[in-house]
What we know:
single chain; alpha/beta; 2 domains; two-stranded parallel sheet; 43% helix
Amino acid sequence: MAPVANYEQARAALSALLRDDCVGRIVLLRGASGFGKTAVLRAFQSGLLATSPRIVAASLRSVSHVGEFFSQAHDALGAPSLTNFAARVAELGSPLKAVVSRNVLIGWNHQINVIAERNEERELTALTDAWFADLEALGACLFIFDDFHRVVIAGQTVPDHNNIAWGGACDRVHDLNGVEVAEHWMYVVRTLGRRIDAPDPHSALVGICKFAKGRPDVIMQFIEGLPPETSP
Length: 232
């Protein structure tokens, strides 16, 4: 896992979620594409211990409805952990049959998606209630959502901890606007065992950071292309 340059406040807020005295149970990371949201989440997840809470890491990049999220969470937690939810799926769906097509098992997740695609409020409410009943029985559980796009509803942009129902549980929004300070990136260069072949490596890195306007994806591409420290 590549080291992360700075973003110390956002990383500290994520680590605080694991403390028993945690008050804000939701952390929002906000930033344009390429500004390090995924890198921060991956670094946080890679540092978790075996004793940490159950983890559900869901990618929302291509999710079109809630059923696809339920399917990802089911895969992460396992059917034995979701007994109430499983009962609701069986009740609302047709008899569950596993069909093998092109070596892909289609069954449980397909049933969830079929129910969700019907988009009937009563059914979705029943699934959601059963879902939360199972989560309460599980105890501590940590959800990591990657790529939650903002949408406009009634003139307001969400997610925003000021205009959503669970905003009171949100620590605050952490804006990731890039890292232009070269010293933070020099740490990454050294940690990855790379070297900058220039009379003044620091000044060269300052120039790269300014050129990239602090964009982590651009600066990391430059660093990863540097020669190893031990190469001739």
